[in-house]
């Protein structure tokens, strides 16, 4: 029998095992620039037992398996570079349990963050990780995603308390639990989080929840120079205001947004800040933020409390990535993702802007200034070899600048396909041990091959 | 040549390689009940190169090596159960770098938390993990320690950004870095944190720092019943007050303190709370806490802002463990360390009190109610086999109660010697993979043998 028939026999449902061209095509790429490759079959499991049946079959026959969630990966994690089986986990989208008094939820991997937050609202709770896209919790755990809220609430690894994982040979193991903390042996939960589908498939995820703050506002402040904006951000962080979000967008990025949306935002380095907490702490925090910004010569200061007005105020920030995309129809995007020590970020952004100018490129630069992570979004034509080469050069220079200043090649997108070389440059002496761990959990190398390691 | 001569040749300093009986004796035990065992030699390295020289020597000859910090372990981690070499790391106590603008410090493993905090004060920063004892940062990282502050700031694993580790064969590897977050490959940093000296010796630790809050207060509230105290704590957590500390002490424990210190604290279930942040948020938070406590029939409410008065108010909590110790001179202590899902803690504490009453024991019960972690401190005579058996029974029943309610056998003390059996019960299906990882990093099993695994 062929691969399709074998899998159909195991799943027993023609709707959930497919070789339909359109479906294969949909599973050939993520949201970024990497070369697409179709899987041979796509399976939509509904249970851990089905995932286990597929994996033990694939493991015996050395067939590659690639887990797939919402398809929003930016580093090619979900491209089955060696073909084989793609496991689409979106039908495993049950919220198994919400335990408001324990501040946790137990979810299947295909639950998306917006789906979870919708269900949490009535409990006055929310799940704080927001990478922008409506990704699945499974996918976010796989890449250790974070986003704008991480300065206050931490990254995915901080939220995941426990996992059910199906390993390459079909064995189902459990890590962590429902206790908020534990010192019981090696932290396998944290090891699986960020393993990008190379160690196993998550089938159950226990996540921490947060209380919805009493008050939230949004602040937008423009500065004469990038250095002053950055200095204001540093002052805010040091003052202990503990912002919910603090984002830096440079002048050229605002210009790109103005062109794209026909808006007239002041084309100046801009901080987008969110404060949340008790009403009085937000009020006091806002005053303090204003003072600190004025001290750095802020040229405009806007604040909104109403949720619609807040969303409007954040628009320029949210449109930045789309602006670049829209300005270059038909082109594909590369988003750099370096993270540097907090104090090094202003210089890193200035250096990056100089670099893309030098190469004559248009780029959006978006900075999570609270944790030193920033993105440079570059558009290019993958068929234009010369352009590809230049984009890769720029990317490599941005990464090496970050590494030479104590930073990392990826703050939140993961290694995937595109940063494998940089992983070696960053962690030369520990990569052999990462490979040893890979070998331990997946001796036949069937789990998402071609990712993380060269 | 013998072991001593070999090591002396490698270290070249008679002051730092010793077989002095008193020194060996000092390195034979931690602060808990486990049977002492002396090492054959104690070495005090000053550099990673010296640690590496000792380990590669020991690895070739299959000699056990046990790392040792402040000696405050509660689970026998530092007892060299198979003899061999103890590496006392307290001479590696340099604060290598404080980078206030990056909110991080780089320290050697022998730096203690008080030493670090002393140095940080002038920068308006502090290191938030406080396990009570003035432990070394290396030791705290080894056991993934936490303590009263973790409800607000997280545990050791959340603070450690990067490590320099000397592996069993003497190889020096680096993990993590100075970026606040990273998705670059498997999280080896988090794997080493909590590995209890079984995977390698930390020689450099990069830790996150926090700004000292503008205002801090201390609140002490008594309740008619344990259930009401627990319900008040739950309400406080859900109200989003975000306490810096929130501790629950039961009636019998306050009685023990009163006997020990000749104090007259109201013998009632008591919550000790600390709020910190901006002055206005502390003020508002205090009001809210008071309301929530009154709603649960609080019988007394005390609040202090001055640092001396705050310390005084916390005394009953701080003396609880000593009270038990003092009441039973010559006896040794066992401190349980289970952590249950937050909502399960009140019932777990009530159950534990019933249990120790049933066994006719005097015990202090101290709960980190914000994270579901509580300690039952039991005194016993290790020579009295009958008493040892009863204490072990009580401990086992407390652990199994926690495990059957989704909890963990250790919230912050680690597995060490005493909880190896419970690790298997808690993580039966993943312990084989923990062992695989141990094998990968330490194939000859020289690193702290007899700990974590049976």
From TrEMBL, chains A, B:
<keyword id="KW-0809">Transit peptide</keyword>
<dbReference type="InterPro" id="IPR016164">
    <property type="entry name" value="FAD-linked_Oxase-like_C"/>
</dbReference>
<dbReference type="InterPro" id="IPR016169">
    <property type="entry name" value="FAD-bd_PCMH_sub2"/>
</dbReference>
<dbReference type="GO" id="GO:1903457">
    <property type="term" value="P:lactate catabolic process"/>
</dbReference>
<feature type="domain" description="FAD-binding PCMH-type">
    <location>
        <begin position="35"/>
        <end position="212"/>
    </location>
</feature>
<dbReference type="GO" id="GO:0004458">
    <property type="term" value="F:D-lactate dehydrogenase (cytochrome) activity"/>
</dbReference>
<comment type="similarity">
    <text>Belongs to the FAD-binding oxidoreductase/transferase type 4 family.</text>
</comment>
<keyword id="KW-0560">Oxidoreductase</keyword>
<dbReference type="GO" id="GO:0071949">
    <property type="term" value="F:FAD binding"/>
</dbReference>
<keyword id="KW-0274">FAD</keyword>
<dbReference type="InterPro" id="IPR016171">
    <property type="entry name" value="Vanillyl_alc_oxidase_C-sub2"/>
</dbReference>
<dbReference type="InterPro" id="IPR004113">
    <property type="entry name" value="FAD-bd_oxidored_4_C"/>
</dbReference>
<dbReference type="InterPro" id="IPR006094">
    <property type="entry name" value="Oxid_FAD_bind_N"/>
</dbReference>
<dbReference type="Pfam" id="PF02913">
    <property type="entry name" value="FAD-oxidase_C"/>
</dbReference>
<keyword id="KW-0285">Flavoprotein</keyword>
<dbReference type="GO" id="GO:0008720">
    <property type="term" value="F:D-lactate dehydrogenase (NAD+) activity"/>
</dbReference>
<dbReference type="InterPro" id="IPR016166">
    <property type="entry name" value="FAD-bd_PCMH"/>
</dbReference>
<dbReference type="InterPro" id="IPR036318">
    <property type="entry name" value="FAD-bd_PCMH-like_sf"/>
</dbReference>
<dbReference type="Pfam" id="PF01565">
    <property type="entry name" value="FAD_binding_4"/>
</dbReference>
<protein>
    <recommendedName>
        <fullName>D-lactate dehydrogenase (cytochrome)</fullName>
        <ecNumber>1.1.2.4</ecNumber>
    </recommendedName>
</protein>
């Amino acid at each position: 029998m062929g691969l399709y028939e074998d899998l159909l026999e195991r799943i027993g449902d023609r709707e959930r095992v497919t070789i339909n061209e359109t479906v294969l095509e949909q599973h050939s790429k993520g949201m970024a620039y990497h070369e697409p490759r179709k899987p041979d079959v796509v399976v939509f499991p509904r249970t851990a037992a089905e995932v286990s049946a597929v994996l033990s079959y694939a493991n015996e026959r050395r067939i590659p398996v690639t887990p797939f969630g919402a398809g929003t990966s930016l580093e090619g994690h979900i491209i089955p570079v060696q073909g084989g089986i793609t496991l689409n986990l979106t039908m495993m989208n049950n919220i198994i349990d919400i335990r408001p008094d324990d501040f946790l939820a137990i979810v299947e991997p295909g639950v998306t963050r917006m789906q979870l937050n919708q269900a949490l609202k009535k409990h006055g709770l929310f799940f704080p990780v927001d990478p922008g896209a409506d990704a699945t919790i499974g996918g976010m755990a796989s890449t250790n995603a974070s986003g704008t809220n991480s300065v206050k609430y931490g990254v995915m690894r901080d939220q995941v308390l426990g996992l059910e994982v199906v390993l390459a040979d079909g064995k189902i193991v459990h890590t962590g639990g429902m206790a908020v903390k534990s010192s019981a042996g090696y932290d396998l939960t944290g090891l699986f989080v960020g393993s990008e589908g190379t160690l196993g498939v998550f089938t159950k995820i226990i996540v921490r929840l947060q209380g919805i703050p009493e008050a939230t506002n949004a602040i937008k402040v423009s500065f004469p120079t990038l250095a002053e904006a950055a200095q204001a951000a540093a002052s805010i962080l040091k003052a202990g205001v503990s912002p919910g979000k603090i984002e830096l967008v440079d002048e050229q990025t605002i210009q790109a947004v103005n062109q794209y949306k026909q808006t007239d935002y002041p084309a100046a380095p801009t901080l987008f800040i969110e404060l949340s907490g008790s009403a009085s702490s937000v009020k006091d925090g806002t005053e303090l933020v204003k003072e600190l910004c004025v001290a750095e010569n802020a040229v405009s200061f806007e604040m909104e409390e109403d949720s619609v007005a807040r969303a409007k105020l954040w628009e320029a920030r949210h449109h930045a990535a789309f602006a670049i995309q829209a300005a270059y129809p038909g082109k594909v995007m590369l988003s750099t993702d370096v993270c540097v020590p907090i104090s090094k970020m202003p210089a890193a952004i200035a250096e990056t802007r100089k670099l893309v100018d030098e190469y004559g490129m248009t780029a959006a630069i978006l900075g999570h200034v609270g944790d030193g992570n920033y993105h440079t979004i570059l558009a290019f034509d993958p068929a234009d070899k010369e352009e590809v080469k230049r984009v890769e050069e720029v990317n490599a220079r941005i990464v090496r600048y970050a590494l030479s200043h104590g930073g990392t090649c990826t703050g939140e997108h993961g290694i995937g396909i595109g940063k494998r070389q940089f992983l070696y440059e960053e962690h030369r002496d520990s990569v052999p041990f990462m490979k040893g761990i890979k070998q331990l959990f997946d001796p036949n190398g069937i789990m998402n091959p071609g990712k993380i390691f060269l």
